[in-house]
């Protein structure tokens, strides 16, 4: 679950850097354990380089190894290893992305860099439960999985009452359940917390989710205002 989350976050953060074109996590996942030649995977993804890696977790300690392979030459053009903690995956994420971009001689603005080291929570247990909730949302057609995700996010909030993203995703669970008032209540709670803590990445997430909610709820002026803020 943690490996899944780190990969997803890295891809989303790299997409914020304009010189980089990165396929979505779901698109990349289709080629997991693929036996296709690297050149064919690269052609289908329309990329020049492919980054792969492995992660070792012992207790709260993490060790991540990654390498970048040029799809033109087939040679490894970059490799690195990092050690960190499950409490600070945002910091680890920032180190990995910075190393990738340094290798590619890409400079990034400071306001974008802040997103790369953002810590959603310092409570490792709350974070792990939150990630289980997000994984359950990959099966939203299954109502039991939605109930499961709801339970995970509620428990994450019990462990960290300031966990903005847990409130936000709980709101989206209620959105998928078509319980729009409950969804709005959770997202408004997340919005207050994000504002009080000057949490810019969290604010962007909440405004985007509010836009999605109000669009489905046919409250279009509110949807537009929130999408603009995100």
Automatic annotation (TrEMBL):
Coiled coil regions in record: none
Classification via InterPro entries: TPR-like_helical_dom_sf (IPR011990), TPR_rpt (IPR019734)
One Pfam family here: TPR_12
UniProt-listed Gene3D superfamilies: ABC-type transport auxiliary lipoprotein component (3.40.50.10610), Tetratricopeptide repeat domain (1.25.40.10)
SUPFAM superfamilies named in the record: TPR-like
Signal peptide feature range: none
Identification of the protein by name: Uncharacterized protein
């Amino acid at each position: 679950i943690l490996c899944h989350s780190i990969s997803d976050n890295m891809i989303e953060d790299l997409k914020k850097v304009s010189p980089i074109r990165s396929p979505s996590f779901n698109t990349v996942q289709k080629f997991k354990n693929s036996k296709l030649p690297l050149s064919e995977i690269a052609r289908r993804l329309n990329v020049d380089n492919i980054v792969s890696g492995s992660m070792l977790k012992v207790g709260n300690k993490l060790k991540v190894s990654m390498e970048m392979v040029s799809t033109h030459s087939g040679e490894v053009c970059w490799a690195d290893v990092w050690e960190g903690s499950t409490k600070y995956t945002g910091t680890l994420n920032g180190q990995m992305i910075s190393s990738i971009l340094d290798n590619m001689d890409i400079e990034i603005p400071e306001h974008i860099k802040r997103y790369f080291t953002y810590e959603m929570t310092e409570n490792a247990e709350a974070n792990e439960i939150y990630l289980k909730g997000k994984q359950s949302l990959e099966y939203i057609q299954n109502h039991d999985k939605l109930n499961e995700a709801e339970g995970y996010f509620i428990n994450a909030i019990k462990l960290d009452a300031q966990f903005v993203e847990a409130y936000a995703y709980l709101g989206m669970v209620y959105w998928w359940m078509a319980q729009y008032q409950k969804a709005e209540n959770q997202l408004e709670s997340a919005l207050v917390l994000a504002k009080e803590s000057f949490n810019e990445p969290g604010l962007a997430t909440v405004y985007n989710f509010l836009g999605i909610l109000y669009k489905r709820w046919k409250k279009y002026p509110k949807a537009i205002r929130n999408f603009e803020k995100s």
